[in-house]
Design goal:
Elements: H1 2-34, H2 38-51, H3 56-72, H4 79-96, H5 101-116, H6 120-140, H7 145-159, H8 163-173, H9 182-195, H10 200-213, H11 216-226, H12 234-249
Length: 251
């Protein structure tokens, strides 16, 4: 009986240690995610999914990191595989917990990445879904800056569609989905900047939007303002390069 009791205690203690380890690993991985350190966060979330593939926090965070890691580090020929995995994980997270703003945001991000290498027809087919997902994310968490960032890019993309693409929109949607103007894009990016004023990518995208609107003074102002931020992560470093390229075009 004593041996059996010791064995039971050992098993319980072991499970407790495993649970604590998973929680600690998640805390570290989540901290890396918040710091935009995708290279460090990626393998940690992969490991967490192996421990519990139905944990909604692991899934929605892993989805986000898969999109980011695929964009920055995956070979060109493999990027779509990462984006598709991100899409799968986000959809799975939403199925488990529909009221998760982060899951809807991650889903919209994955679809946006997929659209970067898609045909015009697929882009348009996904446009309505991206809009509904980002709207849902914002409704659940009005302080989710990344969701406004995607909304801004969505509005700018729709606004810049050519005549053929607009005809396709009409045939698929029966008209352009709500929004879809440069002014809507500016408003969304302004909101993102107000929530995360030190995230350079928001300011760059605002500058790019003004550039596409033909407002060169505003574009230059926001590109220069973005460059006042000291880059601290991959997103910032890319935004810095993009801002410098934009300012050259504005010379």
């Amino acid at each position: 009986m004593k041996k059996i009791l010791i064995a039971v205690i050992t098993v319980i203690t072991g499970l407790s240690v495993m649970a604590q380890t998973s929680e600690e690993q998640y805390a570290k991985a989540y901290k890396f995610k918040l710091e935009f350190k995708y290279k460090e966060a990626f393998p940690m979330f992969q490991a967490l999914l192996k421990i519990d593939s139905n944990n909604v926090n692991y899934e929605q965070c892993a989805s986000y990191v898969y999109s980011k890691y695929g964009f920055y580090y995956a070979p060109e020929a493999e990027k779509m595989k990462y984006y598709k995995t991100a899409e799968y994980l986000a959809k799975k997270a939403i199925k488990i917990t529909e009221a998760s703003a982060d899951a809807h945001y991650a889903y919209a991000m994955a679809l946006g990445r997929i659209n970067e290498n898609a045909s015009s027809k697929q882009k348009i087919a996904n446009a309505k879904l991206i809009k509904s997902e980002v709207d849902r994310a914002i409704a659940l968490n009005p302080r989710l800056a990344g969701a406004y960032h995607i909304l801004g890019r969505w509005n700018r993309t729709i606004a810049a569609f050519n005549s053929v693409e607009k005809i396709m929109i009409n045939s698929i949607f029966g008209g352009v989905p709500p929004g879809g103007s440069f002014d809507d894009a500016v408003q969304a990016f302004m909101t993102a900047v107000s929530i995360e004023p030190k995230y350079m990518a928001h300011q760059y995208e605002l500058a790019q939007t003004y550039y596409e609107m033909g407002k060169k003074v505003e574009a230059k102002l926001w590109a220069q303002k973005a460059l006042e931020i000291v880059p601290s992560n991959d997103d910032d470093r890319k935004a810095k390069t993009d801002c410098e390229a934009l300012l050259k075009k504005l010379e």
